[in-house]
Design brief:
- With 228 residues, the protein is mainly α.
- It is 81% helix and 0% strand.
């Protein structure tokens, strides 16, 4: 039989272990919260000031965190930008899958996806204005974008297209090409033309929808095969 002294020590040890686990959990939550705050602060400041003119001190002040945490968590401002890219791409894929309902016809889906991409590119115009120039001078940013940017987004679109009979019969590379086409139209007419070239946004959007309609017609699929 365990003596009262041993029992007391056992209870004390168990209590200490539980306290330690609670402290670890609190620290993890605290770290995650600070990382999130830094990512959000950097996103806002990069959009307004640009990457080069934004200091780690300003980011830390906006996030309400110590400046040293940027280097501890992200290894500097460049690493923080990479974290922002990962975060935004992941959220965009989630939104694409969760917020867009699947229509009955493939034609409607393609037009809906093009419209979605146009709006997304316009909403992300400040962010794109930061990461595209950085990708030209920082190979790591370009590498990350090539791995998780358009390719990952295109795969999410391709998965949606599988719900439609005609797209299920396409080879994987052709289905992904359709997805890439949708993304390219969104980028060119949702960002490049209205933001970089200064074209009227509504005119750019009308052109994009016209191109999408031409693409849909070019599939030349009988009407009874448009349904999923």
């Amino acid at each position: 039989m365990r003596s009262p002294l041993n029992s007391s020590n056992g209870e004390s040890a168990t209590t200490s272990e539980l306290a330690g686990l609670r402290n670890q959990s609190v620290k993890k939550r605290d770290r995650a919260g600070k990382q999130s705050a830094l990512v959000q602060a950097a996103t806002e400041l990069f959009a307004v000031r640009g990457f080069e003119r934004t200091t780690t001190r300003a980011i830390a002040a906006r996030a309400g965190c110590a400046e040293g945490l940027i280097h501890r968590y992200f290894k500097g401002k460049a690493g923080l930008l990479l974290a922002i890219i990962h975060s935004r791409v992941s959220q965009e894929v989630v939104d694409l899958l969760d917020k867009l309902l699947l229509p009955a016809k493939l034609e409607e889906e393609i037009l809906q996806l093009v419209d979605w991409e146009l709006e997304r590119m316009w909403e992300d115009r400040d962010f794109l204005s930061v990461i595209i120039p950085r990708a030209l001078v920082d190979p790591e940013v370009g590498h990350v974008l090539s791995k998780i940017g358009p390719p990952r987004h295109a795969k999410a679109i391709a998965e949606r297209l599988k719900h439609f009979k005609h797209c299920r019969t396409l080879p994987d590379e052709e289905r992904e090409a359709v997805a890439l086409f949708i993304g390219v139209v969104g980028f060119v007419f949702g960002f490049m033309r209205p933001v970089v070239l200064g074209q009227n946004r509504n005119e750019a959007k009308r052109t994009a929808i016209t191109i999408a309609n031409i693409f849909v017609r070019s599939l030349r699929v009988p009407s009874n095969t448009w349904s999923g």
